[in-house]
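Handoff note, outgoing to incoming analyst
You'll be picking up this chain. Sequence as last confirmed:
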Amino acid sequence: MMRDSKRWKKRIARILYWLKGALQRSGYLLHIPGRAVRYFAAKRRGVLQSRRMARRAGRLAIHGASLALLRRSWQRMTARADGEMGERGDEVWQPAAVSIMEAAVELGEFPRAVGKLSTSMGRLEQSVDMIWPVQPLLSPESGTINRMKRELKNCSEWEKRLIGRIVERTRRWNRNNRTRTQAYWDFYRRHPEVHWALLAHMVSRNGGWNMTDLQGGLLPAILDQEQRREVFCFLERANAFIFGDAYPQLLLYEAGKREGHDLSYLLPAFQVSRFMTPAWRVFWRGRDSALLTVALIVNEQHYIENRVVRSPEIRQKVLEAPFFKLQSLLQLNQVVFPYALHAERTKLAGLILEDFSDVQERIEFGKRLYAMLFRIPDIYGGVVNFARTVRHTGSRADYAPQLFASKNDRLHGASDGANHHSPFSYKAESAAGDHTHTDDTRPLIFSPGLSDAWVDQPLVQPEEGDWFRNAADVERYFAGLPLPPSFEMTNEYEFGLHKIEAAALAALSVAGRPGPT
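Most recent structure output, in case you need it:
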């Protein structure tokens, strides 16, 4: 009896110690109810601000004639493929020569490049060996190279060299999130008619911020090292796979502009879905930027659906894990676009994705981001200015130095996955003067750069296959590009920081580790 009494006293003492420590280390927890009230008021202001900005929205629509031509091309293409493949309908990869004729027939013209095809097979193996360097983008053991040799057998020597340069350039820029993000921006500066490149640049920035959050000042208090590693691998793989599929398409379009004629008939050589060949052909004819952007959104989200999202390993370790169900708390489902940088406050526009595992929701989410970015003049101008002036490092201090610090002399080993330290760096007044917008003594949150948080990962071989089956599965995505009802989220974003700070402090208090001093 005496022993049970002592045990209960110890438990009560630990609870009281936890409560005392939580209150001492985080006085702002007491202000959460008041902050919640202010949050809803601020969210209302965000809705009103979104409506005011939407009144000045520009027009962004897919041309009806372009869509009709694209629809007919898909329907005829899939009908012919089904007839030719029979029960082998899953194997829809086709030789380059078939794609050339297909694109020409469906669009009512023959590309000038048809005359350049070489029927000589004598030096095929030598040419393909030249195309693939010592460190190939894809693994030779997978059989992909053998299939690509078949795709290349009707290409001229010039076309083979072009394909080799694009493969090598893609491999070089697919090193990490920073290089991919920069590659998208460099391409958009050269070819602003390809709207998707700017959208991809900003979404990729968000991917990098999510990656570094895992090693920053907050999430290590909530997720253990293995959980953070699994989420990083998931984010990295999706980022790398999308780039590996999309960037060759961009470079092929660039080469076509340089040569003066469409080269999209070469897309099968990069194992790009047949869904995209007529989309690029239609874009070449009419420069329908909205149509191409939606097509790329649809293609890339389907591309990662089976290769990443539905991967049994990723679903078990990440998407279905209990901690990932808290993604709204962890802010992994939030995409923000800084559109006004000020010393006191950065203005953010963005959206929140409710269910990452739903491919349809991801596509509609991408379309809403696109409409917000290219229809709202203030957002587009601010985002372009931000992308032009602030190089991507992966740290959230890139856009909000008044809230985040990319360096902290007091913290060491931040990139080793064992961040047993306070979730905050140093006091705001020591780093940002009086630039904090709420409290001059509020500490900055540690947000490392990508190179400080994670080492470069080896490229993983994507699974083979083409997701596209028929036009009926994708036509609904081209119905329109409406603006989201609310997209100004500066205040909502900051309230999200309060939530995750509170969760981190609670976790530290339970562990008996100190919070900000």
